[in-house]
Amino acid sequence: MQCAFGFSLSVFLLLPKYLAVNLGAGAFDIGLVATMFNLAALLCFPLVGQRIDHAGRVRLVTVGAALMTVGALGYVAVDRVGPLAAVLRAVHGIAWVTTFSAGTALAAELAPPERLAQVVGLYGTANVAMNAIAPAIAEPIADRFGYRWVFVIAAAAGLASLLLGRRIREPPRHQDGASADLWTLLRRPPMPALAAVAAVTGTSFGVMFTYSGPFALARGSQRISGFFVAFTIGALLVRLVLGRFIDRIGKHRMTMVSLALYAMVVAATATLTPARLGGLGFAFGFAHGFFFPSFVGLLIERCERSARGKTLAIINGATSAGALAVIPLGLLAERVGYPSVFIIAGVATLAALGLLMRAVPR
Fold first, then answer.
1. Which of 96, 103, 213, 331 could form a disulfide with 224 if both were Cys (CB 3.0 to 4.6 A apart)?
2. How far out from the chain centre does Cα 214 lie?
3. 79 DSSP assignment
4. Please, are residues 224 and 277 in contact by the beta-carbon 8 Å criterion?
5. How far is CA 121 from each of CA 75, 175, 324, 352, rounded to the nearest angstrom?
């Protein structure tokens, strides 16, 4: 189910290229449309967070898949950078925060405690793998037949996700008593620090996935799908081959090390050239492949079991909030160039590492 959903969502990794090449959008317009995804996810996460530990998680998964199907098909009618493009991208954001939060909570519920990070990483892999497969399939189709066919294919994948989701049977959930409400959890240490770190990494992730493509095109690249393919190879190498070492070495240690690597790769993207696009994509995928399951595992270990869904929704909401910085950073890129954007995001990620080390003791 997550593979099909991830394929539909990952087709839109090509959206910055579509907006820039086909619709003539600049960096600010690209950032504005892209950020509607995260703005909608941020506004939606309180509702998802309140429902995720009470309503059926499978039900939420299928609701998200239905929204993704509608949001993908709607792009067939987009012929300019305007309200329709922004609203449909917002629908994608609601679909993502709903499906991914509920699906991750379900995966964590099924995971043996000693393999929590590995299981969460494997669930994420079903989504990450599509970051390579979807653009690699969609970009040649778009070049030959046009983007409308690509959007139809994305809608078909969303529908497949919906139909597969309806076949999932949710196991009984274990409860350890009534959990605190969403806002109480958000104020409880070390959640504010963890949410701040998630926000900063959301900014860095948004910068890498929104602006590395247009930056590469400006530097002479003809295609950008190689970045996403290399990213996925790096992430899958960690998740499928090295993932078991996260629980063995320790989630705290791996979170710190991977976040430091995250910061270095983002800052290094300021030196991007067409020849370096694949290498930077691989390095970023390698860092993200370690960071996501380590960080989520560390987070889940420090909350009661009955509040896992709310906690994951908070972190997804914080990630979306951080990604909103893509808008002002896009304006900055138009004025002083793309390299400054990657340097700022890299330095901010390094500062988040210092915050995490102080707020979450080993």
1. 213
2. 19
3. -
4. yes
5. 31, 23, 25, 22
| CA-wise closest residue to 105 among 318, 295, 306 | 306
Q: Tell the burial category of 318 from Cβ atoms under 10 Å away from its Cβ (0-12, 13-18, 19+).
A: buried
Tens-digit pLDDT profile for residues 108-146: 888 887 787 778 888 888 888 897 889 889 999 999 999
Phi, then psi, of 181 in degrees rounded to 5: -75, 170
Q: Which two tokens stand for residue 80?
A: 């300019």
CA 318 to chain centre: 12
Contacts of 129 (CB under 8 A, 6+ apart): 3, 6, 232, 236
Kindly tell me the burial class for residue 175, based on how many C-beta atoms sit within 10 Å of its own C-beta (0-12, 13-18, 19 or more): exposed
Task: State the Cα–Cα distance between residues 145 and 248, nearest whole angstrom.
Answer: 48
Cα–Cα distance for residue pair 79/18, rounded to 1 Å: 10
**Structure token digits, residue 232:** 């996925």
Helix, strand, coil in percent for the chain, rounding step 5? 85, 0, 15
The H or E element that residue 204 is part of is: helix 191-218
Q: What single letter denotes the amino acid at residue 28?
A: F
What are the tokens at 55?
């309503």
| Contacts of 113 by beta carbon, 8 Å cutoff, 6+ apart | none
Q: Which two tokens stand for residue 338?
A: 């793309």
User: Alpha-carbon distance 11 to 2, whole Å?
Assistant: 14
Tell whether the model's pLDDT for residue 244 goes beyond 80: no
CB burial readout 232-259, b (16+ within 10 A) else e: bbbbbebbeebbeebbeebbbebbbbbb
User: How many whole angstroms separate alpha carbon 346 and alpha carbon 248?
Assistant: 28
C-alpha 208/C-alpha 177 separation (Å) is 41
CA angle 107, 112, 117 (to 5 degrees): 65
What tokens does 71 get? 């949001």
Cα separation of 182 and 335, whole Å?
Answer: 40
Q: Which amino acid is residue 76, in one-letter code?
A: V
pTM for the complete prediction? 0.76
Q: What are the pLDDT digits (tens) for 311-329?
A: 877 888 888 889 888 888 9
CB 270 within 8 A of CB 339: yes
